[in-house]
Structures are given as C-alpha cells and as structure tokens.
Amino acid sequence: MSAPLFDGTPPQPHSMVKELQQVGAIRSAAWAEAFARVPRHVFVREWYGQEADSRGITVWRRHDVADHDAWQAAVYSDQTLVTALDPETAERVGERAWTGIPTSSSTLPSLMAQMLENLNVADGHRVLEVGTGTGYNAALLCARLGDRLVYSVDVSPDLVEAARGRLASVGYRPHLAARDGQQGFPGHHTPFDRIIATCSVPRIPAAWIEQTRPGGAILADVSMGIEGGLVRLTVEEEGRAVGRFTTTTGRFMAARGDAHAYRRLGRAPYAPHGGCRTTSLTAADIRAHYPFRLLLAFHLPGAELVYHVDDDTGAMSLQLQRRDGTWARAPIADGPTTTVTYGGSADLWRQAEAAWQWWNDHGRPAQDRFGYVREADGRHYAWHIPDRDRRPLGA
C-alpha cells in the first residue's frame, strides 16, 4: 500500500534501494517502493559508532546530524546503527564516548529487507512488530500495508514516544504501545496474520502464538546460548508453532522485561583447571561456520560461547562455558595442533567434538536444514529435517 512521499527526502533512499536489490535483499516491487518512500534519516538522528580503545575495550562514540555528510552517508548505508546504551552499564570515558551494552538500534537495512520479504505479507494483513526501536521498521510496514494494520510494541516508553513523533512526521500513525513485547500487544483481541520480532527471545512466547491466527506466521530470532537464528513458523490450531531456520542470518539484541536494563543472570565461579589435551576441533572451525554453531547450541543447551583473555599473557581463546562453572577453551591463534584446556567436567569439549563429527558426516548442512517447533506446553525442539530426530532445547 502506498503512502505520500516525505517532502525533503534526499536521494539516498533510492541509492540504498538499488544496493539492496543488487544484493538480493529486496526482491519485490512492493518492498522496493516502501524502502524508497520511507526516509531513514528521520528515524536516526544520532547513533553510536563502535571503536576500541588502547586496551582493546569496546567504546561507543556518539555521532549526530552536526556532521551532516557523515550522518547522511551512515544513515543510507547498509549498516546497523546503535541508538541507545544500557544506563546500568554505560560509563562516559571521553568526549562523546561511552562504554556499555547497546539496548536499541536501527537494524542493518539488508537484514530488515530480507526479513520483511520472508514475512510474506499480503494486502489486508494485520502485523505486529515486537521491538519498535526507532520506528523505522514500523514505517516500512505502514508504507506497505497502511498504518491501521500495523501494531508495534516496545518495552521502553521513551523509545515508543520518540518513535510516535517520528512516524507522525512522515504521515504514519500505527498502533503503538509500551510494554514487554514478549506479552504481545495489550488488549488486542483480533488475531494477527503476522508477527515479526526485532529482538531475540530464548523461546517463542506463548502470547505470540495465542495472538496469531491459525495459519499465520511468526518470524523471530531464537537465542539458544551458544548461537541462535531466525525462524519462520506457522501457527497451528492446537497452539503450537512449527517451521524452520531461514536462509537469512542475523542476530538481535535480547528482549527485555525492564525498560532500561537487562536482567543479570548469575553464574557460578569458574571451576579450577582440570587438564588439557589435543583436539580435532579448533577455535577457527567454530568461528568460521555459523550452521555448526547453531548445531552446537542444539547439542549444548544453556551453554555459552565467549572470548577469554589470559590475565598473564594476554592470549585470547574461544571458550565454551556453563553456568555451573564448567568451561573449556581453545586458543584463537592455532598452531600445527590445537590444545583444549578445561575446568570441571571434561565432557563439555567432547560433546562439541561429537557435534563437529556429526556435522561433517552429514555433509555440513546449512541452517535451513534444521527445523524448530514450540509446543503448546512450552517445550521447544530443533531437529535435522531429513532425520526428524528432535533435540530438546532446555527447560
């Protein structure tokens, strides 16, 4: 559905549309028109660019419209622009520079385009977006469907009100609400045809399934600890949602139940050093293959994958860890052979090696060869589609 062009829109949106078409992110005329009509610069007035200080610590430097040319170039490039930091962790470390954890962003346009294409909307579809953020994605949905059919929710009242103003300035007035998006849209009784989430969740929330009509679709990033990915699911009559991981890869910030900060999860202290041995699975193997990391998340639900820096030598390793303190790490700088060092149970890296062997034995299947289901009772599973051998993904 068309909407009036915004007066004063610079030519960059059209250049960005061409770029997104060339890389295959935009495949349809309807979404090309929507991206051309919505001025991204209205929704991103300032952003934080990622840098590293002399100690290698991530620093976020604020940029804004004062540097007009750089601002326009950034806004109409294919990059994610961080727009807010967690006040619980943000600390000013220099002029226009902070450390901290990002809590909101304007997503990579090519990822947004691929997700919107994968959503497969049709005229008349009612859509819920979880994660209003700047309002840009909601504006694209309004341009495609009309604002009366677009609903958007975000946990932050400040973000919602800012997005409301930006949307109104370009002629869109979708239904907006400030609440935990994992609960769906407040007071909404007409089922949605589509739900799209621009935040990650540990499992598909029950409210999303309840608020989607049977046969409708949910597109979201499911985070499983080590890795996660975008799933497109069809909602069934009995309250389950089933589908598969998509060919589109992309990760989002975690959904928050609090408007300002993330919930901190406790973890036991690291177990003492337990030993070391040679291994066939290297840090480079894990880093290079996204589908394998996804498979590893299936095999090791609840585990995490982090970088570890040795306090004495500064050497960096890739570390698997569990909340009970178990850990295993392999060096980033691999030599002729790789040695894994571990603490607690020695089985953690052995399970990773077994997953690596399985993945290679099965021809290194891509992520879209794995299915995902969220049962009506809350359990969720993943499986290799040709085998149909389901793996539970934690409590």
UniProtKB/TrEMBL annotation:
CDD domains in the cross-refs: AdoMet_MTases
SUPFAM superfamilies, per the entry: S-adenosyl-L-methionine-dependent methyltransferases
EC number: 2.1.1.77
GO cellular component, one term: cytoplasm
Any one GO molecular function term: protein-L-isoaspartate (D-aspartate) O-methyltransferase activity
GO biological process: methylation
Location(s), subcellular: Cytoplasm
Keywords: Cytoplasm, Methyltransferase, S-adenosyl-L-methionine, Transferase
Catalytic class of the enzyme: transferase
Major subcellular site: cytoplasm
Highest rank taxon of the organism: Bacteria
Pfam family, one: PCMT
InterPro entries given in the database record: PCMT, SAM-dependent_MTases_sf
Family listed: Belongs to the methyltransferase superfamily. L-isoaspartyl/D-aspartyl protein methyltransferase family.
Protein name per Swiss-Prot or TrEMBL: Protein-L-isoaspartate O-methyltransferase
Source organism of this protein record: Streptomyces violaceusniger
Gene this chain is encoded by: pcm_3
